[in-house]
Amino acid sequence: MNQNALAEKPVATYSLIGINVLVFLLETFSGGSEQVSTAVHFGALYLPLLTDNGEWWRIFTSMFLHFGIYHLGSNMLALFALGPNVEMVYGKSRFLMIYFFSGICGGLLTILTELTFQSYNVSAGASGAIFGLLGTYLVFALNPNTRRIFPLRRVLLSIVISLSPALTDPSISLTAHIGGLLGGTLMSFLLLPRRLGGKLDT
Predict the structure, then answer these.
(1) How far apart are CA 13 and CA 84, in angstroms?
(2) What structural domains and CATH numbers belong to the chain?
(3) Rounded Cα gap, residues 4 and 88, in angstroms
(4) Any catalytic annotation for residue 177?
(5) Which position among 33, 66, 177, 188 bears the catalytic label?
(6) Which of 52, 82, 88, 186 has a Cα-to-Cα distance from 159 of 20 to 30 A?
(7) Catalytic-labelled residue, pool 62, 127, 173, 188
(8) CB 188 within 8 A of CB 136
(9) CB–CB of 115/106 below 8 Å?
(10) How far is CA 184 from the centre of its chain?
(11) Residue 27, CB half-sphere, CA atoms under 13 Å: how many?
């Protein structure tokens, strides 16, 4: 790995955390972060508003909204834990590409699922984007140059543990998590830095 890159601070990661916290405070002082009406007003994902009003930008804005302090705290803690390694290896621009692409993939899979089952929910949160970072760790675990630092079994266990709450709690969007994970894995592979070049183990 590039030692200069590793010495840089993960500014993009910290900036994303700051933006999420700021938006949460705005939600809190504008009616309450746990109020569905507040979330919709700030740009939460609600399919009828996309299909009927053309508000497709909600796929993006919903990534910065959270329902309550626990939702925010758990996501920001995960971002703080996962983001720096990804940013320092890929650089700020590629890190942000992975992050936002993952969040968008999570939103798109949620939309596809809701269209299929005709069941609409108001959804928001950074978890799709954060699961994309777990996808990056999976790429690390499969790469000969980084797999010793990121053991495959440990990464897979982390993914399973992270996905498990959504299997029993209907308020957690499993589709956003899976969509983000798949999108992050794909984008991380496509953007793999040259210094980590080489075929992934299969």
Answers:
(1) 6
(2) 3-191 (1.20.1540.10)
(3) 9
(4) yes
(5) 177
(6) 88
(7) 127
(8) yes
(9) no
(10) 8
(11) 30
Torsion from C-alpha of 17, 188, 106, 156, nearest 10 degrees: -90
- Residue 123 is classified by DSSP as B
Give the residue-averaged pLDDT of 94-101. Answer: 98
pLDDT 10s digits, 26-66: 999 999 999 999 999 999 999 999 999 999 999 999 999 99
User: How many other C-beta atoms are found inside a 10 Å radius of the C-beta of residue 53?
Assistant: 10
Q: What is the pTM of this model?
A: 0.92
> Quick one: which of 58, 71, 59, 61 has its CA closest to 28?
71
> CA-CA distance, 180 to 183, in Å (whole number)?
5
Tokens 């992934």 belong to 200
Q: What percent of the chain has pLDDT over 90?
A: 87
Short-list 195, 173, 174, 179, CA closest to 94: 195
Cβ partners under 8 Å of residue 21, min gap 6: 72, 76
Reported as a pLDDT band with limits 50, 70 and 90, residue 12 is very high
**Cβ–Cβ under 8 Å, residues 23 and 42:** yes
* Token reading at 188: 């991380």
Give me the amino acid identity at 108. L
**Distance between CA atoms of residues 95 and 168, nearest Å:** 31
Between CA 187 and CA 61, with CA 171 as vertex, the angle to 5 degrees is 50
The dihedral over CA atoms of 88, 90, 91, 92, expressed in degrees to the nearest 10, equals -100
Closest CA to 82 of 176, 188, 2: 188
